[in-house]
Structure formats: C-alpha cells, structure tokens
Amino acid sequence: MFLQEKELKEAFWKSYNRKGRAIKWQFECPVREGNADLITIESFQQKYQINAFEFKLNDIKKVFLQAEGNLPYCNKSWVVIPAEKKELIENRYMNYLKEKKYIGVIVVESGGRYTIVYQPKFKKELRFSQTLLNVCFAEV
C-alpha cells in the first residue's frame, strides 16, 4: 500500500526502467496544461514509441481525464495506480478503456512489481510540441 503518490511513482519507475527500456524520459513534462506525470521515449520492435504515464492513488476519474489529455502527444497513455484498485478497473472501467483504445492501466504492488491490467492499442498519429521535441533530443 502506498501513502503518497511519489512512493507509487518511484516504486513503478524503479521496476519499469530497471533494464533501461526508456531511451529518454521526463517527469512532470509540460506537454499539456497541468503536465504529464511522466513521458518516455522507448524503442519497441524497431520503432520509437512515446508513452505518457499518470499516477494516482485514489481519484480514478481524474486520472482517466489526465490520461485522455495526454493522448494527442503519445502513442499510448497509461494510468498507473496501486494494485488494490485492480478490481475497480476490471468491474467499472473496461468498457471505457475499450472505447478509448489508446489508454492502458498498470497496477503496482508496494514492492514495485507491476501488472498490465489493460493493454492499449498503438496510436500512430501524434501532435508534437516543442516540449516533446526537447524530451526526444535532450541528453539523459
């Protein structure tokens, strides 16, 4: 169980990127009003992919709105929540996720182990901003 969103974010990131899957990344990335919690540039099946991540402990409706706000700027937008919320997602939000297509859900256990609850489709069209270009070409 996580007491603070920061703990969730840190536990997830340590596990998610332990083998260097993200080529570039930026926390609190200002691609939209209010910032995306995390943007990553990754290489997958010989193509580059931009992922956006939003972290929340409780406010599920808000985190989905934030994930939707990230959609123009990424191939996949992820909601990252504590593992205790898995049943809530499976029971209430699966139709929403199928409709939105490009939003996925990851649940994280207190030790950092994560599970993909819903795998989003890959969105081919993106809107680039100066901030996103800076993330792509910045030195890590």
Layout of helices and strands:
Elements: H1 5-16, E1 22-29, E2 36-44, E3 47-55, H2 60-70, E4 76-82, H3 86-100, E5 103-108, E6 114-118, H4 130-137
Parallel strand pairs: 3-4, 4-5
Antiparallel strand pairs: 1-2, 2-3, 5-6
Q: Give the mean pLDDT.
A: 92
Strand order of the largest sheet: 1-2-3-4-5-6
Cα Rg: 14 Å
The helix-strand sequence is HEEEHEHEEH
**Major sheet: size, sense and barrel closure?**
6 strands, mixed
Portion in beta strands: 25-35%
Number of helices: 4
Which term fits the overall shape? Answer: globular
Helix fraction by DSSP (H/I, runs of at least 4): 25-40%
Separation of the first and last Cα atoms = 31 Å
| Number of strand segments | 6
Low-confidence stretches: none
Main structural class: alpha/beta
How would you characterize this protein structure?
The chain contains 4 helices and 6 strands, in the order αβββαβαββα. With 140 residues, the chain is α/β, with parallel strands linked by helices. The chain has a 6-stranded mixed sheet with strand order 1-2-3-4-5-6. It is globular and about 40 Å long. The model has no long low-confidence stretch (mean pLDDT 92).
Question: Quick gist of this model?
Answer:
By secondary structure, the protein is an alpha/beta fold. Helix content is 33%, strand content 31%. The N and C termini lie far apart (31 Å).
Question: Which key terms come to mind for this protein?
Answer:
6-stranded mixed beta sheet, 140 residues, 31% strand, globular, alpha/beta
